[in-house]
C-alpha cells in the first residue's frame, strides 16, 4: 500500500478573510464554509505556500518544459509561448503533482498532435494537505490561473475563448473557479472557451451552489467524464450532471478492468483506479476518437438494453478531447451520454449489433461466438447465443467490441458444444450481419459450409 505523507499546511483558525497581492481576498463565509457538508472547508493558503508553478510545453521545447512561477507570469514573453496558438492548461487533483505523471504525459501528447501552448499546473504543496484544506486551496489556485490568463490578454490581446482548462478531481473545480472569475473581467470579453472536468471531486461539491463547483456557466463549453460517481466511500467523483455534455462510461460509477473498489491510503487521503480512469480515457481519446463514441440516452440501463442504438440522425459525440466538435451540431445543453469502454489500454470500444444465421444440424445444444483478430495478433471472442441452436435461425446480440471490425484482419465464427451434444455435430454461419452503432450501416459476411465444435470458420464479405 502506497503511503501518502501530508505536508504541514497553513490554516487560519480565527480569521474570516485573507487577502493576497494581485489575486484579492477570500472569505470563509457561506457558501465557501459554515454550511452543512462544508464545515471543514476554511481559508485557502497563499500562492507562496502552495508553491504554484506552470510548466510550458510547445513544439519548441520538445520533451522538456519551461517553468514559470506564479509570480513570474508577467515575463511570459521571455518563453516559447505563442499568442497565435490555442492554449491548454492541465490541472492535477488531490495528493497529486504536476512535476511528472499523467499531466506531463498529456501535455506532451497534446503538443505532439497539435500546435498549441500546453501548461501543466503544479500545486503539489497545496494538494498534499488534508482533503478539506486542499479543497479550500483551489480557490487561490483558480484565482492564480485566472490572473495568468488575464496577463495573456493584457500582453498579447489574447482571447480567452482560445483557452481550454483540463482538470481532474479537485482540478476540475479549480478550472471552474478560474472560469467563473474570467466571466467578470470585461463585459465585452468572452470567457474561457472550454473546460473539461475529469471526474470532478464529489465531497463538498456535489449538490452545492454553483459558485463553489464546476458548472456549465464557467466556460463556453463544459464537458465532463464521470468515472467514479458512486456513493462515498466507494465513489470519489460527482455523479450528477454538471456540464453541457456529461459522459458516463460504463455507467459512470465503476470502471471495467479496475480491481480495487476502494483504496483508503490514509485518513483524509483517497484514491482509486476508477477515479483515475477519467484522465486515462481522455488521453487515449486523443489518439483513438472513434473508439469513444457515446450515445444520448435516458439512463445507463436503457443504453445497456439497446434502446438508444444506433445513433440518432444528428450523430453521437465522442467522449474526451474531441467532444467539442459535436457541441454546435447537437445544440443541446445538459445532455447525458453513455458508452462502454475496453478493459485495458487503450480502452477503446465499438458498439455493434451482431446477428448470425446458422447452418448445419437442426437442433444442437451449444454456444456460438464471433471472433475478431487484429493486425497485431490480438483476438477477442464475443458470445452471441447459448442454449438450443437451430438451423436457419437468426441470433442477435448488441455487443461492445474492443477490436474495430472495420480494421479487423480476420473475422471468424466458432461454436462450443454443451454436454450430451454429439461429438460429430457441425454448425456454420451462413450469414453474419454487423450493424454499426455510429450510423446503422450494415456489413455482411458469409461462411462456407459447417465446422466441428471449437474449429474456427473463416468469414468473408458476401
UniProtKB/TrEMBL annotation:
It holds the Pfam family Lipase. GO terms for molecular function: lipoprotein lipase activity; metal ion binding. Residues 1-15 form the signal peptide. Its EC number is 3.1.1.3. Residues 17-347 form the Lipase domain. GO terms for biological process: cellular defense response; intestinal lipid catabolic process; response to bacterium. Keywords: Calcium, Disulfide bond, Lipid degradation, Lipid metabolism, Metal-binding, Secreted, Signal. SUPFAM superfamilies: alpha/beta-Hydrolases, Lipase/lipooxygenase domain (PLAT/LH2 domain). It is found in: Secreted. Disulfide bonds join 19-25, 107-118, 258-273, 297-308, 311-316, 446-462. Belongs to the AB hydrolase superfamily. Lipase family. This is Triacylglycerol lipase. It comes from Pseudonaja textilis.
Amino acid at each position: 500500500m502506497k503511503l501518502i505523507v501530508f505536508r504541514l499546511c497553513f490554516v487560519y483558525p480565527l480569521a474570516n478573510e485573507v487577502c493576497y497581492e494581485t489575486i484579492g481576498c477570500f472569505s470563509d463565509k457561506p457558501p465557501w464554509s459554515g454550511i452543512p457538508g462544508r464545515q471543514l472547508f476554511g481559508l485557502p493558503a497563499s500562492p507562496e505556500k502552495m508553491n504554484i508553478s506552470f510548466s510550458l510545453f510547445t513544439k519548441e521545447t520538445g520533451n522538456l518544459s519551461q517553468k514559470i512561477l506564479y509570480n513570474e507570469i508577467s515575463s511570459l514573453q521571455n518563453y516559447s509561448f505563442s499568442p497565435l496558438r490555442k492554449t491548454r492548461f492541465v490541472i492535477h487533483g488531490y495528493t497529486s503533482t504536476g512535476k511528472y505523471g499523467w499531466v506531463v504525459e498529456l501535455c506532451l501528447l497534446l503538443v505532439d498532435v497539435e500546435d498549441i501552448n500546453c501548461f501543466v499546473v503544479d500545486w503539489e504543496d497545496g494538494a498534499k494537505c488534508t482533503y478539506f484544506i486542499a479543497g479550500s486551496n483551489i480557490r487561490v489556485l483558480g484565482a492564480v490561473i485566472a490572473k495568468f490568463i488575464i496577463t495573456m490578454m493584457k500582453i498579447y490581446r489574447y482571447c480567452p475563448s482560445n483557452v481550454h482548462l483540463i482538470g481532474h478531481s479537485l482540478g476540475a473545480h479549480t478550472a471552474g473557479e478560474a472560469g467563473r472569475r474570467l466571466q467578470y473581467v470585461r463585459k465585452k470579453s468572452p470567457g474561457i472557451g472550454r473546460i473539461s472536468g475529469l471526474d470532478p471531486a464529489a465531497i463538498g461539491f456535489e449538490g452545492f451552489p454553483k459558485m463553489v463547483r464546476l458548472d456549465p456557466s464557467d466556460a463556453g463549453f463544459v464537458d465532463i467524464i464521470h468515472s467514479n460517481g458512486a456513493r462515498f466511500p466507494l465513489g470519489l467523483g460527482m455523479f450528477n450532471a454538471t456540464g453541457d455534455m456529461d459522459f458516463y462510461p460504463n455507467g459512470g460509477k465503476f470502471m471495467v478492468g479496475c480491481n480495487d473498489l476502494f483504496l483508503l491510503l490514509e485518513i483524509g487521503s483517497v484514491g482509486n483506479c476508477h477515479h483515475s480512469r477519467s484522465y486515462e480515457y481522455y488521453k487515449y481519446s486523443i489518439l483513438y476518437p472513434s473508439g469513444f463514441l457515446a450515445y444520448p440516452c435516458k439512463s445507463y440501463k436503457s443504453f445497456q438494453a439497446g434502446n438508444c442504438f444506433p445513433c440518432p440522425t444528428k450523430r453521437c459525440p465522442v467522449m474526451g478531447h474531441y467532444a467539442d466538435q459535436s457541441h454546435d451540431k447537437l445544440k443541446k445543453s445538459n445532455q447525458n451520454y453513455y458508452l462502454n469502454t475496453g478493459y485495458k489500454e487503450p480502452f477503446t470500444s465499438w458498439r455493434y449489433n451482431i446477428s448470425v444465421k446458422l447452418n448445419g444440424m437442426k437442433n444442437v445444444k451449444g454456444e456460438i461466438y464471433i471472433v475478431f483478430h487484429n493486425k497485431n495478433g490480438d483476438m477477442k471472442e464475443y458470445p452471441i447465443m447459448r442454449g438450443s441452436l437451430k438451423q436457419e435461425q437468426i441470433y442477435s446480440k448488441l455487443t461492445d467490441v474492443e477490436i474495430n471490425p472495420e480494421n479487423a484482419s480476420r473475422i471468424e465464427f466458432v461454436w462450443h458444444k454443451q454436454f450430451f451434444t454429439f461429438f460429430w455435430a457441425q454448425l456454420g454461419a451462413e450469414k453474419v450481419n454487423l450493424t454499426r452503432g455510429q450510423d446503422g450501416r450494415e456489413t455482411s459476411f458469409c461462411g462456407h459450409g459447417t465446422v466441428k465444435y471449437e474449429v474456427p470458420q473463416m468469414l468473408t464479405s458476401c
